[in-house]
Design brief:
The protein is mainly alpha-helical. It contains 15 helices and no strands. The chain has a single domain, classed as Amino acid/polyamine transporter I (Up-down Bundle). The longest helix is centred in the middle third of the chain and has 49 residues.
Length: 425
């Protein structure tokens, strides 16, 4: 091969590398949502930097299970759901059943938060139930019309803007420093309320482990629509851009909460619109009134990106589960995806009717359920890549397998501690 041909191959490879970016970015959009905006910020606001260890540990211990899901697709070209089926019907059926339940709760939760923020941002004076339902319809229409291609392009722009705005806000707050009110008494961390919050924080940080399936199914869809076949290293690069990027963003949000809100003496309202107003006001009053529109934009972009990816991710993974459980349904094509997004939307609207006035209760319930089901999904992802379903060259290294086992122990241990506090103590 001459120099000209080598140069063309390198140029083509770089082009493919750029086009391969997508599922990892979508994952970041799903991750940088309620877990970051509400729970990371509140962790800093209530406990300053004392919970930085929780964010670092949960991102570290969940890392193998998200990596394993994407690794399987990188090694085989198949969705990780196919690997679940190879493990046995129990694995794919367990994922399917639990995902239906968590999908309904998380659909409702992200829709409620995003709707409240949108109502505040645009001063929409509608009943919260109607505004939530309206937002859900808008997001679903966006996904039906634009499909994966539009979602992919839109999310790349959103995540770039979000990252820039958040880093700017953090450094302005860092320059100002903490302003703790006289007589401020820090809240107790190691009581039932503190433990429940830690569990909720880790339940959705960076996202629930059942969402580890999403980058895998997005990658399969991306490859179909863009007609590309990324290399194994390109898959892993895409994954790490999203995962590591979202982990750092969690620390930025915690820092913003600690620098701007900790010690202010204010408490967050359980009402979503009031919460949104408090969040924007506290930031803008501390950083400067000029920043109000920037802060509001950061918050709205964060949750809208999460709403898009969550409302696409759950139906897509349920669609894949149905195809694996009942192969004959493949003849229905995208009708299965449309069926699930419609069913979940209706169920979410019913849930929203019950929780319209109390966003905090809905979020805590959703995150705790996500954490308590995490050990099962972690174990399944571990088994998929440590069985003989992928070739030896793609087998995870020893340090990664050890980290995965430690992660399972960590997730089980914290779940047992929580249940002890709830049912025994």
């Amino acid at each position: 091969m001459n120099n000209l041909e080598q140069g063309k191959v390198k140029k083509d490879r770089k082009k493919v590398s750029f086009r391969a970016l997508g599922p990892g970015i979508l994952y970041a959009g799903a991750a940088i949502g309620a877990s970051h905006l509400i729970f990371s910020t509140r962790a800093g606001a209530d406990y300053s930097y004392h919970l930085i260890w929780a964010i670092i540990l949960i991102n570290l211990f969940k890392y193998p299970f998200f990596e394993f899901s994407y690794r399987y697709t990188a090694a085989t070209g198949e969705s990780v759901l196919t690997g679940y089926k190879k493990l046995g019907k129990w694995a794919i059926l367990s994922f399917f059943i639990i995902s239906i339940f968590t999908a309904i709760i998380n659909f409702a939760a992200v829709t409620k938060v995003t709707s409240d923020l949108t109502s505040y941002f645009f001063n929409i004076q509608l009943d919260p139930f109607l505004s939530s339902s309206g937002l859900l319809i808008i997001v679903i229409l966006f996904l039906f019309i634009g499909k994966y291609t539009l979602l992919d392009k839109f999310m790349k722009v959103i995540i770039m803007i979000l990252g820039i705005f958040t880093i700017i806000a953090f450094f302005f707050a860092l320059n100002r420093g903490q302003q703790i009110a006289p007589g401020f008494i820090p809240p107790e961390l190691w009581d039932i309320a503190g433990l429940t919050f830690i569990l909720a924080l880790m339940g959705w940080m960076p996202t629930p482990i059942d969402a580890s399936v999403w980058p895998s199914v997005w990658a399969v869809e991306r490859n179909k629509q863009k007609k590309i076949t990324p290399t194994f290293n390109e898959y892993r690069f895409d994954f790490h851009v999203g995962y590591i990027g979202s982990a750092f963003m969690a620390l930025f949000f915690l820092g913003l909460g600690a620098l701007v809100m900790y010690g202010s003496g204010n408490q967050f309202s359980a009402d979503g619109v009031k919460f949104s107003q408090q969040l924007v006001s506290l930031y803008s009053e501390s950083i400067g009134s000029w920043s109000q529109e920037i802060i509001a934009t950061i918050i709205l972009i964060t949750m809208f990106s999460t709403a898009l990816t969550v409302i696409d991710g759950y139906p897509r993974s349920l669609e894949g589960s149905v195809f694996e459980l009942f192969p004959s349904t493949k003849k229905w094509g995208k009708k299965v995806y449309m069926f699930w997004i419609s069913v979940l939307a209706v169920a979410a609207v019913i849930i929203l009717g019950a929780f319209t006035k109390n966003m905090k209760t809905l979020l805590v319930f959703a995150t705790v359920i996500s954490f308590l089901t995490a050990p099962l999904f972690a174990f399944v992802n571990y088994k998929v890549v440590t069985s003989n379903f992928i070739s030896a060259e793609y087998y995870p290294k020893k340090w990664l397998r050890i980290l995965a086992i430690a992660g399972i122990v960590f997730l089980v241990g914290f779940s047992l501690i929580y249940m002890y506090f709830i049912f025994i103590k």
